[in-house]
Each structure stands twice: as C-alpha cells, then as structure tokens.
Hints:
By secondary structure, chain A is α/β, with parallel strands linked by helices. Chain A contains 16 helices and 9 strands. Chain B is α+β, with helices and mostly antiparallel strands.
Amino acid sequence: MTHPAFYEFGSPVRVVSGLTALERIPGLLEDLGAARPLVITDKGVRAAGLVDVLTGALGNGLEPGGIADEVPPDSSVAAVREVAHRFREARCDGILALGGGSVLDTAKGVNILVSEGGDDLMAYSGAGALKRRLKPLIAIPTTAGTGSETTLVAVIKDAARQVKMTFVSHYLIPDAAVLDPRMTLTLPPHITAATAMDALTHAMEAYTCLAKNPQSDAAALAAVALIAEHLPRVMAAPGDAHARLALANAATLAGMAFSNSMCGMVHNLGHAVGAVCGVPHGTCMAIFLPYGLEYNLHKNGPLTAELLLPLAGPEVFARTPAYHRPFRVIEAVRQLNRHLRERTAGRHACSLQEVRDARGQAQIPRERLPEIVAAAMRDGTAIYNPEDLDREDVLMVLTQAWEGLPLDRTRVRQG
Amino acid sequence: MATRWEYRDHGPIREILRCAYLTPMLWFMGRAVAAAAAVDTDVRREFDTLPTPFTFALGVWPAGPAMVVAKGADGRVRYRGGRTAGVDIDLLMQIKHLETAFQMFTFRESTATAFARNRLLVQGDVANAVPVARVLDMTEVYLLPRVIARLAVKRIPRWKPWRTWIGRLRIYWRTLWGY
C-alpha cells in the first residue's frame, strides 16, 4: 500500500443515497439554513420530467424560488451570469443543482457570483481565488459519471475568448450530494455507458497516478468494484433501480478519489480531444483508458495489477499469474468497451475514428491530431501522470487510439 | 512503493541554514530559467505557450525565499528578483513548508512529486502551471549532472550530447555573468 510522506484529503460532502433520497432534501436545506432554493437544470433534464419528480419529492413544505433551465450543454460564463441574475431577482438563499456535469459546473459558477457579488466570474478563475464559504449548494446528479457532486473543480467556457476556464477551490465542493436512482433511470444506454466509463477512469487514474493516497485508494477500489458488477447489469436491464443506484454511488466515490488524487494522461488526452473536436468527455475516457494504463505500465505495473481484484473478482485474480495481471486489467477494460459497443448498437466508440456526431459524421478527422497534441500540452493533468508526456508521446498514443490498435510498448520512452 | 521518512525537530538555526541555502539556490534557478529561455528552443517554445506578458513566482509560503521570473511584452524572459511583495504575479506557486522546499531544491523530491503530494499552493490559471513545470524540469536537466537530474525529473530527455553540454555551458555562463 502506497503511503506518501505527505498528502491532503478532504471530502466534506454529505452523501444521501437511496431509493427515496430526494425526499431528504427539505431536511438537508434546513440544516444548511436555506429555505428558498433556486433549481438549476437544463432543458433536457426538464423535458425528461426529472424536475417534476424533484418538486414532487420536495412536497408542499418547500417551494423553490424558481427553476432556471437555461444551462447549455457546455456551461458558459453567459449562462452563469443569467442564472445568477435570476437567483438575485427571486431572492433565493440556496441552490439545487439537478443535472450532469455542465449543470453542476454552472451551479458552482452561479454560487461564486451570488456569494461573492458582482458579475465578473473571471475574477475568480484559477486556483485559490475564493477565500470563504459560499451559499448552500446541493447537487443532484442525473448521470452516474462526472463525480462533480464531490469535486472542487468547475470548468466554464468563456465563449468570447473561446477558452475553458478552470475554477479550483475547496469552497466549490457542494454541501450535499443526493443520489436517487429515479434521476438516472431514463438515461439512454450510450450515455449510461460513456458516463460509467468516465467514473471508471476517475477511479483507475486516482489509484495509479502520482497523487494517490490511502484515503483516495479506498474510494477508488470501491468504485471500480461497483462499476464492474453493476454496469453490465444496468446495460442488460436499464430499469434496475438498485444497479442504477450502485453506479451513482460508484461515480460519487470515484469523484471523491480523483478530486483528491487528480488524474493523469487519460484525462489529459480526453480534455484535449473534447476541447478541439467537441467530443463528449465520457466517450474520450472510454477510448483512452486502456492506452493510459498501457503507457504507464513500466512505472505502474504493480498498481494496475491490483485493480484486477475489484475489476474481475477474486477467482480471476487468483488464477492469473502476478506478472500477467496488469495486462489482464487492460484487456478487461477493452473487453468492457467492446461489450458496451455491442449493447449500444455501435454508439459506444472504441477508437477515435469510430466517434460520430449526431448526424453520423466522423467527429475526429485524423488531420486534427496535431491540434489535439497542442491542446494536450497545456492540460494540468500531465503533471500527475507517472511517466512524462511530450509532443511525440502524445501523437504516438493518439495515432494508435485513432486506429484502435493497442499501444506498441517498444515505442514508449522510459525514464 | 513505501516511502521512508523521519521526523526531525525544526529549530531556528536549522531554519536559518535552510534559508541560507534556498535563497541563493532560488536566485540561481530564476536566472537559469531566464538563461535557458534564451538558449534552448524547447524552453523557448514552452514560454511561447504562456500569455504575454506573464509573471510567475516560486517561493516558500508565507514569505520565505522566492524567485520571480517574467516574460515581458517583447517576449524576453527575465529574472525579476526574489521578492513577491508588490509584484503583479499571474501564477504564484508557494511551497507550503521550508523543509519541503529544501527537499525539492536538494533534489530529493521532484517537482511532479511535490505537486502530487500537495506540497504547493497554486494561485492563478492552473493551465499555465504546466508549461512552467516543464521549464523548471528542463532547466534542472541542464544544470544538474545526469545522476542527480534523474531524481528531480520524471524522465531525462534524449538530447544529443552536444546539445546538453553546449547548452549547459551557455546557461551556466549566462546565469553567472548576465545575459
């Protein structure tokens, strides 16, 4: 067990998980001293009827101050300003964030403006800009993947400057996360698959990258085990509420882990592909996860091997020779990707060339790989990757991932 | 993978000695970064990815030894001294403890490991910390013998020997005698 000489771990989120978890929200708000929350969500979540489920669960005792459903698919500074304006107009005193990563990030941005005052969100970008507690924020995730309900990060796009700004602060961590399977039951199979692979990547990178620590390890291993057991069940029976709840818990645990141990090259490449080609984050994670494990194998072999137990179970772990376990983990992730591709009729991509947009067009042309390399070189997650990554390395991995071929490990430069 | 460490009492003399080591070390490192930006194309390329103008500082929290390096409006990189007070800094990286800073600058803990162990407080755009970390790594590879540089960075770049040696001579010359 790795025990670093120094580390910090913090996860102050109160997690409420269960088949009727939503009904606990009035009590949570009361504990936090809020009585008039603004519900922040997006139009897709509202159209799926989830806002009605939420307001129904709140009962007559609690009337939201308003419902702001104008969050775009990529959270933006303009949307944050608009929602903050509505918050002030309606004299709200807390936030219920109902949605996926974009909604939760927007809610965090709104919380900055309504707590600190003013309209200049960019003044609080980067790390360490916030110096005090913000208003009560309860996160109700509608996907089981981003883990944003437990993380200290928000990524918000500044459309005018065409950049994604990162906000990092312990004060951005929501006060509570409410995990209720009613919120994820209607998730389409390909989104269920991609978001679960996002959570699996959070857990595996948290366990194998440089900032790992015993606390994050515990959360990461539990997350891997839950995903390995329950993702195939959810894909086979999307209405299985218990399995859905298990996946939601896995995503939250993985969020706790990576919020404290950060991620490595899988996120580095995924952020870059997302920024350049607009590919959903979970899709990128699913494709790059086996490549990240392969690339770092010479430094991380023993740690990767340990993941076989929660991923494949004790029987497979016991009958696999120790030297072969890390390779078995990588193969198991690839098998899982192939299984998800079958289950989603090809919508779950296993290589970059298979990624299609809504019109069926290839979303990542090969000639854009150099642009992706440039974006990857400025992503902060590279610091936490066990092996160094330079431009040549990134291009080599991207080329293999585009083709869908395993990494040629003789081309990985070892330091 | 287990890490060995031991507890030591940190008396005032020890602190003074640590500061006496770190102050010239950071002065030297700051000037070496500026020199490396003038000498090496890869270091230059990392600075090119940063905004213009841009100032970063690396020091010991709260007011210990520090180095301030700035890329001016003309793109030239200069060492701006060892005081952070009153300077408009875009990226401030502060090592949380003097002892940790000593470990880093005696090359017993790499920059990446220090980041991973949460040894630094970072204020500013995190994306800019990545090229800065690469610049620090490359400068260390130039300044240090290979056997020590291996402890300070994740991977020694495969440079041609002439590049390492000529670059090293030029960087040491510029660091010591100006540039």
